[in-house]
Every structure is written in C-alpha cells, then in structure tokens.
C-alpha cells in the first residue's frame, strides 16, 4: 500500500517528480518540494535499480524513473552565472526551482548514466556526464579538494567574503562540512564505466587522496567542518558507515582492472 502511494501518486509537482513528505493515512503529499536531494534521492535511484534487478517484475519502476528523468532535464537544470558551462540539478518548491544543491545530489549524474546504458538512451548518458562535470568542479575548487555539503550558484545573494570565489568557480559554499559522503566518487565510477575515459579514474584518485589526506585520523576517518579551510577545519570525531560501504568501495572499483569484473 505504501509503495502504491509513490507509484500511483495522487499529485505530482511535474510528471514523475513527487513531494518529499506524505500522509500515510491517505497517500496525499503534504509538501511540493521536488528534486533528487536528501529525502527523495533513494526513491529515484532505486526505481531504476529495481528495474535492472528484475525487469519483468518492475517495469512500472522503469516508467516512473523515465518520467522523473525527463521532467528533471526539462525543469530542474541550472547553470552557473559566472561559469555557464557548469550544469547542476536544482530542486523546486512547487514549480519554483532553486539554485542550490547538496553533495547528496551528485549521485544523480551516475544514475542518469546508468539509466542511459540500460535503456539505450544516449541523451541520459550525456546529461549525466554534464552533472558529473559540475560535481567535479565543486571538488576541484576548494582548498582540500573535497566538495562541500551544500552549495549554490545563485548570483543574487553571494556572501561578500565569497564573491571572488564565486566568480572563479561558478558556485559559492552554503555549508562547507564534509560528512564522508560518496556520491561524487560514485558518479565518477559510472562515468568511467560508460566512457572508458581515464580522466574519471584520475578524478576519483584525486578525490580519494584528498579524503585520505584531510579526513584520516588515528583510528579511521572523521567528518570535517570546512572543505575550504586548511586541513579541513575541525575534525568532527564522527565516521559514517557509508565511508566503507560506498566511498572506499567505489574508490576501489573504479581503479580495479575492468577485465577482472564478473561477466
């Protein structure tokens, strides 16, 4: 029953794009915030992956993913004012699209690439690669070489202290912490497997080394307070489980010789 509320929604912000909060008593969405950010990211990710798992059983999941992907490409795309070549995926409140995103959103590049490969859609692959480029830019621009947890490309409210940073890099930092998140390296992996371009391996290695150099502590890895500060600012003394489940996994898998992969 709960799944039916999502697969047969009573309302949509755009076709395939749903709100993030739902009344379990009647299945109505209680907000109209749509996007691939935290709170909704896994829904879109696993629509596609469940279809891959069993295409005969989960064909409707594929159809819902396609609707969401097409609406996102039509409505949620953002470009930086100072670096118009950068492509980001925003989120909306109703049908008003904001100009900010989070590290979590960077999984979308890899998900679009995977969808394009499975469905034979080059447009999804090309769009996913553009999102990967945008997320690489947020890593490539900071002091530590790690991307921030939350950032914006809105030119109208750039903090005074970040105006030069925004002009150089195309975004500014809302929240500079890093919680050992995997999404950027994850998308590098999919980009590499789709294209064979060694550049993505290099990007993944740079990201892994940045995490190792900045977050490594005596007994593991720690979240940090400021990716744009020397040494990452304050160590937060907290290690997420997805460091092992995803950050290190994708860092290994992208460097592993493809010929060793099963199949």
For the sheet with most strands, the description reads: 3 strands, antiparallel
* Average pLDDT for all residues: 96
Low-confidence parts: none
**Assembly level:** single chain
- Which outline best applies? globular
H/I helix tally: 9
Strand arrangement in the largest pleated sheet:
1-4-5
How do the helices and strands follow one another from N- to C-terminus?
HEHHEEEEEHHEHEHHEEH
The beta-strand count equals 10
Strand content: 5-15%
The percent of residues in helical segments reads 40-55%
Class by helix and strand content?
mainly alpha
Description:
- The chain has nine helices and ten strands.
- With 263 residues, it is mostly helical.
- The chain is globular.
- The mean pLDDT is 96.
- Helix 2 crosses helix 3.
- It has a three-stranded antiparallel beta sheet with strand order 1-4-5, with no helix packed on it.
- A hairpin with a 7-residue loop joins strand 2 and strand 3.
- It has helices spanning 2-7, 41-53, 59-75, 107-119, 122-140, 163-169, 183-195, 198-215, 242-255, and strands at 33-34, 77-79, 87-89, 92-93, 96-97, 100-102, 150-152, 172-175, 216-217, 220-221.
SSE map:
Blueprint: H1 2-7, E1 33-34, H2 41-53, H3 59-75, E2 77-79, E3 87-89, E4 92-93, E5 96-97, E6 100-102, H4 107-119, H5 122-140, E7 150-152, H6 163-169, E8 172-175, H7 183-195, H8 198-215, E9 216-217, E10 220-221, H9 242-255
Antiparallel strand pairs: 1-4, 2-3, 4-5, 6-7, 7-8, 9-10
Helix pairs in contact: 2-3, 2-4, 4-5, 4-7, 5-7, 7-8, 7-9, 8-9
